[in-house]
């Protein structure tokens, strides 16, 4: 982050522009490895559980799911705090409410999903959903500043 800010400030100084300082998007780089780690770990967990590979492999894959989840969770929360400034608490509360509702509703489908599809394909389905979300960090890095300016806090 500090390196990105320094590079952006140096580039602006060379161009004779005002230095941009810290941008919210500088909080997102760890989102990229996290977004790849989650589906890979879900696939590893599902198929090693399906084929009854040694118990340590699924356990280690859940560790990788946790690492990827923490990368994503921390980056999104930091991004929200930077993007919504004085309304950061409201943004984080909305995020927490959404996660809580999903955490309450989605497990209701879990047992039936695993009974129908099994561990391998059930986790593959979750991994495919996670793979569908991989473009989001790249989109935020590319267009995040434009989106934040278009829908700035003053326009709420």
From TrEMBL:
<keyword id="KW-0472">Membrane</keyword>
<dbReference type="GO" id="GO:0022857">
    <property type="term" value="F:transmembrane transporter activity"/>
</dbReference>
<feature type="transmembrane region" description="Helical">
    <location>
        <begin position="121"/>
        <end position="141"/>
    </location>
</feature>
<dbReference type="InterPro" id="IPR036259">
    <property type="entry name" value="MFS_trans_sf"/>
</dbReference>
<feature type="transmembrane region" description="Helical">
    <location>
        <begin position="53"/>
        <end position="79"/>
    </location>
</feature>
<comment type="similarity">
    <text>Belongs to the major facilitator superfamily.</text>
</comment>
<feature type="transmembrane region" description="Helical">
    <location>
        <begin position="86"/>
        <end position="109"/>
    </location>
</feature>
<feature type="transmembrane region" description="Helical">
    <location>
        <begin position="28"/>
        <end position="47"/>
    </location>
</feature>
<protein>
    <submittedName>
        <fullName>Putative bicyclomycin resistance protein</fullName>
    </submittedName>
</protein>
<keyword id="KW-0812">Transmembrane</keyword>
<dbReference type="GO" id="GO:0016020">
    <property type="term" value="C:membrane"/>
</dbReference>
<feature type="region of interest" description="Disordered">
    <location>
        <begin position="1"/>
        <end position="20"/>
    </location>
</feature>
<keyword id="KW-1133">Transmembrane helix</keyword>
